[in-house]
Amino acid sequence: MLSNSLLKFAASENWQVYKKDACVFGTVNGYCITASTNEALTTFYVPVAGIAPENLIELTVWLENTRFPLVLINYEMTDNFMAIRAKDTAFSGTAAQMKRFLDILTEKLKELDVDPNVCAICGLSADNLALYVGLFCHIHGECIHKVGIDFTNPERDVHDQIVSEAELLLLNDDAEAPAVGQGAIPPLSFSDECDTSSSTPDEWNQNDDSPEVSTTCEDNEVPESVPKERLMKLAEPFIPYEDAFLEDLAALIAIPSVQGDEDENAPFGKEPKRALETFLSIAERMGFHTVNVDNVAGYAEMGSGDEMIACVCHLDVVPAGSGWNQDPWKLKREGDTISGRGVMDDKG
Length: 348
Fold this sequence. Notes:
Blueprint: H1 4-12, E1 16-18, E2 23-28, E3 31-38, E4 41-47, H2 53-65, E5 72-78, E6 81-87, H3 95-111, E7 129-132, E8 135-138, E9 148-149, E10 158-159, E11 168-171, H4 201-206, E12 213-215, H5 228-235, H6 242-253, H7 270-285, E13 289-293, E14 297-301, E15 332-334, E16 337-339
Antiparallel strand pairs: 1-2, 2-3, 3-4, 4-6, 5-6, 7-8, 7-11, 9-10, 12-16, 13-14, 15-16
Helix pairs in contact: 1-3
């Protein structure tokens, strides 16, 4: 279900709606953008195929260090698309704020020489517009079944995602999709057999509603540039503290620290405050000097001197949502895999 503010924005920009409010899509300053709402978050998807590696790094640094009209929660870059999640509330997420944010974002993309008219798979100039795995972009019809260059992952050169024709809706001057308020785009005329391994906007949003899983390097492929033996050697000093770490992590996972209503001495709600207090008590037990900054933030420090090294994290989480086969607020371990809301982002 799309939020009212997103629908108002889409209507003001003459964007189009897809699959009975699954998402809206259109252009801002020539860049194709798809947007959808999940819980109290609006996610914007922008193709960034063709971006240079150094510009990809600059873009991530810029996202993390810039103050925007919207309150950003997180972002993700994969398979040549960038997904940016922002709060959609009365205080963050109005139609005007969305417009200002997307203007700022697309101006930055232009500054980084991201061509808005290139194929989302191969990164070369393309005239066709399409909804590719549910995301609005330029695309070559002949690229659908090809292995493409993954510009959003410098550590690998290609991705092997194969997309069926059922996931592609080509748009051209002769095929008019209804604007917001005029109904949904007609059903696709292709086969119903889709490649379920592909990601769609709904699935990306559901990543926030699905179990978070963390595995050790024994079960995962390690990049060739970092020998597995080297990683295992680095992990050895941590092994004696593994059980204690998991016990502390379980205590943090057990706190459903979703942002709530402001309360006395709890600006982000009671549960985020409880998570902060628990974290600081763990750090104090370990010998750190701890400071609680009015229950807005806190820090733990050790040592002295003019130079400092900081590690920044957060303790709030998005709602658990659906799709779990366990209690999301209870740490679960199966072999070398642990799961629970927040084990990866960011309590672990």
